[in-house]
C-alpha cells in the first residue's frame, strides 16, 4: 500500500506549446523482453520509464538477462538466447502491469522451470485464464487463485508443443503470450485473430531476426511464428505512446482557443483509432512531419480547438483504441449531441471496470450517460459537465488522467483521490500537462 496522492484539476485558459509524451508502453515491454532473449547487446532509446515497464525490466533481470540504464537515459539489454531464461529465485511482482504479466507467462511457459507471479490489488483481480488456457494446450501447467487470478505459479514445460489458436477475445496480450511461448517451441505456432490487434510483437520479433508470417484467412488475421529462432540483438527506438498522447490531444480538443503540438507520436494504424474517432467528432488534428522511426509510423500532432459533436464509434474500432475510451468519453461529455461507443466488453477487465468508471464518474460530474449491454451512450449538451466531485482512481492510471483532463473545462474542479497509479504509464504527467496551461495541483 502506498500513501494516496490526491490531485485537483481546475478550469484552464487556452492551451499552447509543444510537448513530447513518454515512450510507448507496449513497445517498451517487448523491447526489454526480446532484448533479454537475444544474443548480444540491444540498445533501447526512448524506453518508457514507467512502473509497468520497470517491472518487466526487473523480471527479465530475475531470469538472467542483464538490463542497465546509462546516464543519458539509454537502456542496454544483454540477452540469454531463446530458451535460456533461468528460474527466478523469488516471486515476480508485476505491480499493476497486465501486459508484463501475460507476456511473461507465455515466455516462462516454454521453459523447464517454475515461477511465481503476483501484483497489486488491481492486477490480482484480472482474468488470466485467457492466457492459461492456450498455454496449457502447449504443455505448461498453472496453479492459480479462483477464476485464474494472481498470485499464480507457472510450471513451464521442457517439451512444449506448437498450437494454432483462435483468440476468443480481441487481445494483443493473449496473442503475444502464445507467440512468445512459441519462441522456445519446435515447429510453427499460430494465432488467428477475428479482429486485428496491435502487431508490435510480430513486427519486433522480425526486427530481432525471427520469421513471422501474417496471412489474411477467412477466419481472420493469422500470425505464424517459426519456433526456436536465433534472436540477435537489435537496437530499438521507441516512439511516443499514442495512448499517452491521447490525454493532451483531448485537452487541446476541449479547451476553447487551444493550439498545441504533441511531437513524435507513434501512429501504427492498429493503435490510432482514438484520433480517427476524435476527427469523426469534428476535432482538428493534423499530422505534421510524418516519418518512420524505429519501424513505426510517427508524426507530430497539431491540435486546434474546434467544437465537438457526437458520433457513433463502431465496435470493430475497439482494438485500435482499447485504452483510450475513458479519455474519449471525456471529450464526448463536452460535445454537442449523442456519442455511442460500441463493443466495450473488454473495458470491464482492465486495471478497473472502465465502463463503470465512465458511467459513474461522468454521471457524478453532471453528464448524461447510459450503459446498454456493452455500449455506452453519452448525451452531450455542448457545454462541459459541471464537475465539483472527487473521483476514485481505483488503481487505474487512465481513470486518474482522464478526469484530470476533464477538470480543465468543468466549472468546478475535479479531484482525484489518488493519482499515484499515473506513474505506471505516464511519469511526469501533471507537470507536462501544466506546461501546456492545465492547472493540475496537489492541493485542492
Ligand atoms: O499488448 C499490449 O501491449 C497491450 C494490449 C492491450 O490489452 P489486451 O490485449 O488485454 O486488449 C492494452 O489494453 C494494453 O494496455 C497493452
Ligand atoms: C490496460 C492497460 O495496461 P495493462 O493491461 O498492461 O495493465 C493500460 O495501460 O490501459
UniProtKB/TrEMBL annotation:
Pathway: Metabolic intermediate biosynthesis; chorismate biosynthesis; chorismate from D-erythrose 4-phosphate and phosphoenolpyruvate: step 6/7
KW Transferase (keyword) present: yes
Entry annotation: catalytic residues: 323
Gene Ontology biological process terms in this record: amino acid biosynthetic process; aromatic amino acid family biosynthetic process; chorismate biosynthetic process
EC id: 2.5.1.19
Predominant subcellular localization, coarse grouping: cytoplasm
Annotated 3-phosphoshikimate binding sites: 25-26, 30, 171, 173, 323, 350
InterPro entries: Enolpyruvate_Tfrase_dom, Enolpyruvate_Tfrase_sf, EPSP_synthase, EPSP_synthase_CS, RNA3'P_cycl/enolpyr_Trfase_a/b
Function of the molecule: Catalyzes the transfer of the enolpyruvyl moiety of phosphoenolpyruvate (PEP) to the 5-hydroxyl of shikimate-3-phosphate (S3P) to produce enolpyruvyl shikimate-3-phosphate and inorganic phosphate.
Subunit structure, as described in the record: Monomer.
Similarity-based family: Belongs to the EPSP synthase family.
Name of the featured protein: 3-phosphoshikimate 1-carboxyvinyltransferase
Amino acid at each position: 500500500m502506498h500513501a494516496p496522492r490526491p490531485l485537483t484539476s481546475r478550469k484552464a485558459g487556452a492551451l499552447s506549446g509543444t510537448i513530447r509524451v513518454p515512450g510507448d508502453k507496449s513497445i517498451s515491454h517487448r523491447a526489454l523482453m526480446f532484448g533479454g532473449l537475444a544474443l548480444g547487446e540491444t540498445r533501447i532509446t526512448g524506453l518508457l520509464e514507467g512502473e509497468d515497464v520497470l517491472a518487466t525490466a526487473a523480471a527479465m533481470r530475475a531470469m538472467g538477462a542483464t538490463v542497465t540504464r546509462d546516464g543519458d537515459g539509454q537502456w542496454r539489454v544483454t540477452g540469454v538466447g531463446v530458451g535460456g531464461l533461468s528460474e527466478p529465485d523469488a516471486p515476480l511482482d508485476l505491480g499493476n502491469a497486465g501486459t508484463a504479466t501475460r507476456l511473461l507467462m507465455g515466455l516462462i511457459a516454454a521453459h523447464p522451470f517454475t515461477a511465481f507471479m503476483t501484483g497489486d490489488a488491481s492486477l490480482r483481480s484480472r482474468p488470466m485464464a485467457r492466457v492459461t488456457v492456450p498455454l496449457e494446450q502447449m504443455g505448461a501447467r498453472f496453479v492459480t487463485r479462483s477464476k485464474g487470478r494472481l498470485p499464480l505459479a507457472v510450471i513451464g514445460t521442457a517439451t512444449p508443443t506448437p498450437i494454432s489458436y483462435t483468440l476468443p477475445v480481441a487481445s494483443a496480450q493473449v496473442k503475444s503470450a502464445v507467440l512468445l511461448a512459441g519462441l522456445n517451441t519446435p515447429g510453427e505456432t499460430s494465432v488467428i485473430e477475428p479482429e486485428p490487434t496491435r502487431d508490435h510483437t510480430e513486427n519486433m520479433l522480425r526486427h530481432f531476426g525471427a520469421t513471422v508470417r501474417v496471412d489474411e484467412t477467412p477466419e481472420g488475421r493469422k500470425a505464424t511464428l517459426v519456433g526456436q529462432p536465433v534472436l540477435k540483438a537489435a537496437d530499438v527506438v521507441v516512439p511516443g505512446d499514442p495512448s499517452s498522447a491521447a490525454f493532451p490531444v483531448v485537452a487541446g480538443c476541449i479547451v476553447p482557443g487551444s493550439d498545441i503540438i504533441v511531437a513524435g507520436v507513434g501512429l501504427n494504424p492498429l493503435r490510432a483509432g482514438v484520433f480517427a474517432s476524435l476527427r469523426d467528432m469534428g476535432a482538428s488534428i493534423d499530422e505534421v512531419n510524418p516519418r518512420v522511426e524505429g519501424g513505426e509510423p510517427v508524426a507530430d500532432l497539431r491540435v486546434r480547438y474546434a467544437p465537438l459533436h457526437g458520433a457513433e464509434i463502431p465496435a470493430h474500432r475497439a482494438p485500435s483504441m482499447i485504452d483510450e475510451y475513458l479519455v474519449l468519453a471525456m471529450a464526448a461529455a463536452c460535445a454537442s449531441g449523442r456519442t455511442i461507443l460500441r463493443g466495450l466488453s473488454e473495458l470491464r477487465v482492465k486495471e478497473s471496470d472502465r465502463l463503470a468508471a465512465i458511467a459513474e464518474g461522468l454521471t457524478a460530474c453532471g453528464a448524461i450517460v447510459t450503459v446498454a449491454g456493452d455500449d455506452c451512450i453519452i448525451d452531450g449538451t455542448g457545454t462541459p459537465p459541471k464537475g465539483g466531485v472527487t473521483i476514485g482512481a481505483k488503481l487505474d492510471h487512465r481513470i486518474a488522467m482522464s478526469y484530470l483532463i476533464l477538470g480543465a473545462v468543468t466549472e468546478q474542479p475535479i479531484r482525484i483521490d489518488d493519482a499515484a497509479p499515473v506513474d505506471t504509464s505516464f511519469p511526469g504527467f501533471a507537470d507536462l500537462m501544466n506546461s501546456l496551461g492545465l492547472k493540475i495541483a496537489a492541493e485542492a
